[in-house]
């Protein structure tokens, strides 16, 4: 299955506690909690481009599976890391955050980010 496509956030769990834990300011948390972000994924072989648009904020990351890449986080930090693919899952570690993006079926992506005991889960549907 290909990750390629455009997805809109449908639901999320633990947004506020997770964003507080990673140091996002309260005013940005309040502004962002009800925005239905759009994720666009372009997959070509092992090369990926992921564009996430949340209101006026656009985050673009490009990477190749198994190779070191500079990925930008929600807080604006650039982290050198390696994205691994395990079947229909993309896995990456960013500053203590374990992130797994799973293509559950042809139309649903679930992204789970874990930091300590906080699990932030985002479910997005293909547009």
UniProtKB/TrEMBL annotation:
An example GO CC term for this entry is: cytoplasm
Stretches assigned to the Cytosolic fatty-acid binding proteins domain: 5-22
Looking at the UniProt entry, the stretches that span the membrane are none
> Keyword set for this entry?
Cytoplasm, Lipid-binding, Transport
One Pfam family name is Lipocalin_7
Q: Which domain of life is it from?
A: Eukaryota
Intracellular or extracellular location(s): Cytoplasm
> Which SUPFAM superfamilies has this protein been placed in?
Lipocalins (SSF50814)
Q: Which CDD domains match?
A: FABP1
Set out the biological process GO terms recorded for this chain's protein.
Answer: fatty acid transport
Question: Main role?
Answer: Binds free fatty acids and their coenzyme A derivatives, bilirubin, and some other small molecules in the cytoplasm. Involved in intracellular lipid transport.
**What is stated as this protein's family in its record?**
Belongs to the calycin superfamily. Fatty-acid binding protein (FABP) family.
Domain remarks in the entry?
Forms a beta-barrel structure that accommodates hydrophobic ligands in its interior.
Q: Report the protein name in the record.
A: Fatty acid-binding protein, liver
Q: Which organism is it from?
A: Lateolabrax japonicus
């Amino acid at each position: 299955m290909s990750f390629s496509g455009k997805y809109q956030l449908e639901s999320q769990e633990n947004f506020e506690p997770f964003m507080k834990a990673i140091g996002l300011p309260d005013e940005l948390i309040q502004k962002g909690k009800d925005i239905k972000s759009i994720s666009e994924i372009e997959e070509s072989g092992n090369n990926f481009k992921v564009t996430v648009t949340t209101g006026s904020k656009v985050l673009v990351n490009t990477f190749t599976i198994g190779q070191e890449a500079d990925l930008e986080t929600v807080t604006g930090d650039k982290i050198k890391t390696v994205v691994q693919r395990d079947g229909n899952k993309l896995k990456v570690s960013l500053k203590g955050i374990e992130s797994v993006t799973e293509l559950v079926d042809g139309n649903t992506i679930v992204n789970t980010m874990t930091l300590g005991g906080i699990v932030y889960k985002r479910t997005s549907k293909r547009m």
